[in-house]
Structures are given as C-alpha cells and as structure tokens.
Amino acid sequence: MSEDTVRQDGIGEPDDLDRLWTPHRMAYIRGESKPGDASAGQCPFCRIPTLEDADGLVVRRGRLAFAVLNLYPYAPGHLMVCPYRHLADYTETTAEEAIEIGELTKQAMHTVRAVSGARGFNLGMNQGEVAGAGIAAHLHQHVVPRWPGDANFMPIIGRTKTLPELLDETRALFAEAWIG
Questions:
Q1: CA distances in angstroms from 167 to 2, 88, 134, 171, listed in the order given
Q2: d(C-alpha 102, C-alpha 90), whole Å
Q3: Fewest CB within a 10 Å sphere: which of 67, 95, 155, 173?
C-alpha cells in the first residue's frame, strides 16, 4: 500500500499527540494483580506489606494501616492509605483502623505539604467498582496533592501528563521526611 492510499483511508494518519511510552501501565490495563474476587491471596494491597518498603513503594507503616505511593498516580506524590486487613468497605473497619487510616492521611498531608509545597489535596475512597474503585476488594484512601496550575495546559493542549520524579525517589523523600 502506498503512503497516499493509507492516508486516503484514514489509517496511519499522523495526529497531534505526543507519546510518552509507559509500558509499566500494561499491568494496570490488563488487570494484573487485581483481585477478581475477595481473595486476599491475589490482592496487591495484601502483598505490598510483605515486600521491603522500597520494593513495595511503602512510605510509612502503622500498626493497622500503611501509606504507599500509587503506582499509577493521578498527580506527583499521589499516596494511598490502606488497612493491612483485607476488607472492601469503609463501614467494615474497626474503630481503631478508621482512626489510624485518618491519622496516616493527616500525616501524609503534612509530609507532602512540607516536602513539595502542595497547596491542596483531593482525598477520597471509591467504594465499589461502580464508584470507580480500581481495586474494589481492598479499601484504600487516596491522598492526591494539588498545586496552583497543576491542571495546566499539558493534559488539555499538550495531551500529556508529567511526573517530575521517579516513584522510588519520591518514596524515599517522603519516608525520610514523614511527619507524625
């Protein structure tokens, strides 16, 4: 097929998108390590605490919950706070688990603000797959730092997201500076 034929058919036409190759996201797209049922054995949030902190991107460990960097962050410094216990719904937490999740969330906010100057945060739990939970079988609280202009032209006009630092560097920085 000649180049002219391909372009007339609309196949292979150049577009205006830049490409940042992120092959590590294929595991996310394929649903790898995502529990298909409530089985704790398949759950990444159950597996992560068994790893060394650097390998699991764990920033802080508590007695009942831990803070971990999101492997697929919405924004730089995106953390999650997870109970160790495999449970899906916030209403299933014990009073002690709920308190520790809240305390670790506060500590994460203090730490990220001190380290990176975040000016705001989005906090939230997507409860259930229909509510947007990527891993609905294991409760996790998102802590997403925000800065003025962070939703700037790059995603809209540049059609690109930028992360200024490798995740292992961010994890080490947060772990060292943890406030709480």
A1: 44, 26, 20, 6
A2: 12
A3: 95
Walk me through the domains of the chain, giving residue ranges and CATH numbers.
38-177 (3.30.428.10)
Structure tokens at 19: 């490409």
Residue 60, Cα to own-chain centre: how many angstroms?
Answer: 15
Phi, psi dihedrals of residue 66, rounded to the nearest 5°: -145, 160
- As a whole number of Å, the CA-based R_g of the chain is 19
Its pTM stands at 0.72
75-128 pLDDT per residue, tens? 889 999 999 999 999 999 999 999 999 999 999 999 999 999 999 999 999 988
Question: Which residues have a catalytic role annotated?
Answer: 140
- Closest-CA residue to 101 (of 112, 78, 85, 114): 85
- CB contact at 8 A, 58 and 49: yes
| Burial tier of 63 (Cβ tally within 10 Å: 0-12, 13-18, 19+) | exposed
Q: Distance of CA 142 to CAs 121, 159, 174, Å?
A: 10, 24, 16
